Known about the structure:
alpha+beta, 434 Repressor (Amino-terminal Domain), four-stranded antiparallel β-sheet, 8 strands, flat, disordered N terminus
Amino acid sequence: MDAVFAKAPVAPSGPVSIGDLLRQARLKHGWTLDSAAARTRIKRDYLEALEAMDPRGLPSRAYTIGYLRAYAGFLELNVTDVVEQFKLEVECDTGRAQPTAPKKKREFKLPKGVIGAVVILGSVLAATSWYGIHVTRTGAFADAPDAATLLATPRPVVESSRAPDPARIWAGLPTAQAPEALVFTAISPVTLEIRDASGRVLFAREMDAGASYRAPDETGLEVSATDAGAVRVRSGAQDIGVLGTSGQILESLAMDSFVADWRTARAEAEAATPNGPGR
């Protein structure tokens, strides 16, 4: 067992599960869950769920694998073998092994009262049709003018002012500016997750160096990453820079605030720079 916790990375062997291997490695180093969470900057709940192999306490599968890579490397285990064994132990995409059962056949049944409503509706339509025929036959519209009389009658002239100027209508209204698309590029391997304003996952994937993702042109985006320094952001033609420092774990970073802070800093820098030789 001492060989498993040697300083050089080693591969897990034997029937020991990934959760047990992580827990044993942490205890071998003498760290509690709290101290490991503080050192790795990963939530304590996530570390506890990884060691217990409890998918209910873990995020999406792609992001969970990112945490697993960081935690295994921190514990000086073989990251590749740990991840591969995790994928074998947890076989479904959501991170939770769910039993499959045959689907029950749905029986089509009409709601109660539908037949009665159809009968009533048919009676109403029949009565309406009879009334229309009866009124027509009794000459209820005998005094109505014919089409020729209506066409021969001159139309009243309505005086209207000049059409309004569209420029005056829209004057003073704020102009809508569509947000510039954000492009996220991986500098080194990283797990990236992007959600929209409603919390719906737009992108969750392990990205290799050089891979990019163009986010939708909308506000309210939130970004999580296993390494903030491994993701470079571009807004339109402007290079904003990396999301954070190298090794920093991000969770739900509001991109609206991130871009606004960058624009403010750029404006202050431009204001402090001399503009021409006369200054």
